[in-house]
Amino acid sequence: MVNNRSLATLGQGVGFSEIIKKLSFNHGWAPYPYGAVEKNKSVENKPIRVGLVLIDQQTVYKQQKTIELRHILSGSSLYWLAILDGVELKTNTTINCILDQFCHGYATLPCTTEKVHNLLVNLDKLHEWQDSKPLSAKVDVGRARMIGSPRTTGKLFERIARFANVDAPVLVHGETGTGKELAARAIHESSARSHAPFVAVNCGALPEGLAQSELYGCEKGAFTGAHQQRKGYIETASGGTLFLDEIGDLPLAVQANLLRFLENKRMMRVGGRKEFFVDVRIIAATHVNLRQAVAARTFRDDLYHRLNVLEISLPPLRERVADIAPLAEFFYSKYRKEGSCKLQGISQETFDIMRSHTWPGNIRELSNRIRQAMLYSDSPLLRPTDMGLDRRHWGRYITSLELVRNQAEYLALRESLANHSYDLVRVASELMISKVTLHRLMEKHGLKYSRLPYIHYLNNHIS
Ligand SMILES: Nc1ncnc2c1ncn2[C@@H]1O[C@H](COP(=O)(O)OP(=O)(O)OP(=O)(O)O)[C@@H](O)[C@H]1O
Description:
Residues 146-375 form the Sigma-54 factor interaction domain. This is Sigma-54 dependent transcriptional regulator. InterPro entries: AAA+_ATPase, AAA_lid_NorR, Homeodomain-like_sf, P-loop_NTPase, Sigma_54_int, Sigma_54_int_dom_ATP-bd_2, Sigma_54_int_dom_CS. Keywords: ATP-binding, DNA-binding, Nucleotide-binding, Transcription, Transcription regulation. The chain is an alpha/beta fold. Strands 1, 2, 3, 4, 5 and 6 form a 6-stranded mixed β-sheet that branches. Strands 10-11-14-9-15 form a 5-stranded parallel β-sheet. A two-stranded antiparallel ribbon has the order 7-8. 48% of the residues lie in helices and 16% in strands. It has 3 domains: 5-133, Response regulator (Rossmann fold, 3-Layer(aba) Sandwich); 144-314, P-loop containing nucleotide triphosphate hydrolases (Rossmann fold); 318-444, Helicase, Ruva Protein, domain 3 (Orthogonal Bundle). Bound molecules: adenosine-5'-triphosphate. Residues 144, 146-148, 174, 176-182, 245, 287, 327, 363-364, 367 line the site of adenosine-5'-triphosphate (ATP). Adenosine-5'-triphosphate (ATP) is lined by residues 144, 146-148, 174, 176-182, 245, 287, 327, 363-364, 367.
């Protein structure tokens, strides 16, 4: 057996050690404890792309262990395969979230080493393939992190990576709090401009008479109070990215100037006489429908087309149900680090109710509600009432037949999956739907370990 693959291992347990030993003897894997891998990134010049992580009862039920595990997995660039020992998937949200966010697959003990070996080989190939791709989606945005289920956010990351490689203007639309600024930052951070400033301007907050000088700056004595020459936002962002939030609120006169600037990247300070070149990439965002604004003549048609070269549309959170659990878990872990909180997690009921809330403030609202709830909660698990969401109020939040349908669909799926331990043939038969429909619905509701399709794909496509 040729030993050509290295494996990081994380966790200790009898069954786990047994699997690792067999993988080494029978299949030629060279296992290394994760600590050793971390120090060198590669051991003995062997690249390490995949890791095997043990998730047992201690990991799941000992809060400190769960936190440590999340910390390690989120900071690692390896592709992880989880080995579940003595824990039931069913409706355990903690495991579901860890698997969904950080692992590319899992196997439950007892299982054959052949199965684990095959999954690892495919993951290794997948990692190698992703490494060789010119565009790989970036998840980290500076110090911030963009979270979501791979189905929705995966496509977004791919767009962000593509858009980062070209220098054209981008128009981002989405309701308030859907992450428009975060997406713009992600493009900037992933682009060649990342070393230069990212300047965010809320066009709606620019005072009407001062919008021009705020954007373009002014020369000394240009108007009363202009005691010295001052750079505007455009110049401040030189070499980097200017993010124009709420672009629809830009006064018409300033729109005309911005159009000229977009055409040749040349500008003049207010009161100035000489035009000069400024190298800035413009990313604009809007929560209103700019086409309608164009029709209503409050937004210039030509500017709209100049800005809308590349487009990103961020759906509201109520349409990204699969993102709710990973986002909630992310904010929970983030705010947990901030204070001495005795909470041990989020209750299943809270997750259920979160899925049916309409989230008018989108991701910002979710983040704020979790933060406040964590301050005030006095129970071990975060309850719906802590977050100001109550089952009695469902009716109030449900605004359409579609939402009611979604809620019923989700509950039926979850129940049946739990009852049949994710045996999809039985679940499909019980719900009287085809397996294809079942897969689609599981994906829609975030009940699928969405990274697993990669493995199935690879199983079918890689010889
Ligand atoms: N995918 C995500 N993962 C983690 N945090 C997110 C994500 N999307 C948004 N957020 C967080 O939600 C909050 C709102 O995001 P952001 O300010 O980017 O939204 P926005 O659409 O620009 O809002 P507005 O239209 O009100 O300016 C921020 O705290 C941001 O960090």
